[in-house]
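input
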Amino acid sequence: MATGPLDVVVVGGSLAGLMHGIMIKRLGHNVRILEQYPTSIREGQAAGMSTGVYGQKFLEKHDRVQDRPHFVTASYLRVVDVDLNLTELRTVPFKLTNWKTFYYRLRANFDSLSSEYVLKPPQSLPTDGTILYDVGKRVKGVAYEKESGLTITSEDVETGVSTSLHPDLIIAADGANSTIRKLLFPELETPYAGYLTWRGVIPEKSISEETLNFLHDKAIRYYTDGSYIVVYIIPGEDGNITPGERHVNLVWYYNCAKESTEYTTAMTDIDGLQHRRTVPFGKVQPKVWAKQQAYSSTTFAAPIKEMVDKIDKPFVTAISDCMSPRCSFYDGKLFLVGDALALFRPHVAESTNQSALHCLLLEKLLQGQLDLAAYEKEVMMFAHTTLLWSREIGSQYLYSRIGYIYHKTRSRLARKGKRWGVRL
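output
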């Protein structure tokens, strides 16, 4: 795509931004990540996640942290009903981690940040491009002129001072509430799906032996009338994967009408602030969580009830989705990637996987192994089919039978018609 080193700005320093930053610097280009969060240290981001097939491909290619495993494996997905009767058992080789473990591993690879997760990070090679992880920078605008190129303007969140940069390439990896996506498509909405997720982690050592046996080597999907729960084991503090030191991750999908008092109360934190998307760890009102635990105690089977009871710092998210009509702009000089391009409902655990796919495809584009049209086709096809698939899975447990049939039909038709042309 280019003969010399590019100057690249990545908007967003979370997982998608870091993966792209690592890949770009390894190609010898110069990378500046603009991250709105005021520090490099992240607190309270221990939620479980799966890296996915493309996430593993990315790590195999670009991860230079070799001395510390970062995931817990599970061999099966076990689906059970309200009375724990087995309804489905699938062989699925999961690699499960949590946000902080993956974040600090990527930071170690990007800018050699040392942490309790990676004590001795790898150093950059002479062939790597220059890098900067620039915290406390809120992007305010982006523009493009054929003659003068790109301009991106950011504001320091503490001082209010504005800075304009003129990179060769912009990667918009600024997540579900993407500023860049809003600038490009101000009328594009992220509609509420009709349900919340309650999430929390529990130290493995506090769980009974019977419940741990129930979880052993499995991800569990437990469903009742109008809600369902996913639960699995993830790394513990500082990424520890030693049995007994790990955590149990629980995600509870719960129907809740947006117009209801229940929704308003759930999305209002202990300081009286109502959140649009997520009430974070430590901010959920105790009385609200106590009500959810009371519901669990009268509805769920013993192992599920035990785990819900032992979550002391939950967080709650209002589930939504959206998809940008396009992924590249300004003659292939600005790209929406990850959740900034397409936000999926979390049932399919494809958020990180999608980000890694975008990264691997962009790498081929930058190396001249893929043209822009082929990149756009692959990216948009994956986004479209996965968005519909995530709606299908959610509707199976949370919508009416008619709603499920509708979403299932749309999803299956889309996946039947897809054609993958790029080998990664």
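quick obs: Residues 372-398 form the longest helix (27 residues).
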